[in-house]
């Protein structure tokens, strides 16, 4: 995978996870709708097991929602989740978002530096 598609994937993850985290506090939705929307964006973000630092918070979410098979539609009744499981979902989604943002920022900086180094009009090249 080239740098551009890696960066596009990271940007997609940031966008999806931002929406998931925002969904958890949407005042115009019921608690069930908030959870459904957040988990929907979460499952779209990670169609496969993530690797690296994202794996641990991703895994905590899957354990909190009952460990459904990867790739299935996630449907969890909020009243079946303990307060601790709900907190785990919120904290883990936030952690995933923070990690995705940091990784994306680093990748954008690396891409910008690489583009600058490849610029024939750049006197540093």
Q: Helical element count?
A: 4
Number of domains: 1
Q: Please bin the fraction of helical residues.
A: 55-70%
* Uncertain spans: none
Q: State the order of secondary-structure elements, H for helix, E for strand.
A: HHHH
The end-to-end distance, rounded to whole angstroms, is 25 Å
**Rg (C-alpha, Å):** 18 Å
Structural class: mainly alpha
Shape: elongated
Biggest sheet, in brief? none
- State which percent range the strand residues make up: under 5%
**What is the averaged pLDDT score?**
88
Instruction: Let me know the number of strands.
Output: 0
In terms of quaternary structure, the protein is single chain
Descriptive notes:
- With 125 residues, this protein is mostly helical.
- It has one domain.
- The protein has four helices and no strands.
- Helix 1 runs antiparallel to helix 2 and helix 3 packs antiparallel against helix 4.
- The longest helix has 36 residues.
- It is elongated and about 55 Å long.
- The model has no long low-confidence stretch (mean pLDDT 88).
């Amino acid at each position: 995978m080239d740098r551009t598609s890696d960066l596009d994937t990271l940007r997609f993850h940031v966008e999806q996870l931002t929406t998931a985290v925002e969904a958890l506090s949407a005042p115009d939705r019921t608690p069930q709708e908030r959870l459904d929307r957040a988990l929907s964006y979460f499952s779209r973000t990670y169609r496969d097991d993530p690797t690296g630092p994202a794996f641990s918070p991703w895994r905590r979410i899957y354990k909190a929602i009952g460990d459904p098979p990867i790739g299935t539609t996630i449907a969890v009744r909020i009243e079946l989740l303990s307060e601790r499981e709900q907190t785990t979902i919120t904290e883990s989604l936030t952690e995933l978002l923070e990690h995705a943002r940091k990784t994306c920022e680093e990748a954008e900086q690396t891409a910008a530096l690489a583009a600058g180094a490849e610029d024939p009009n750049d006197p540093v090249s």
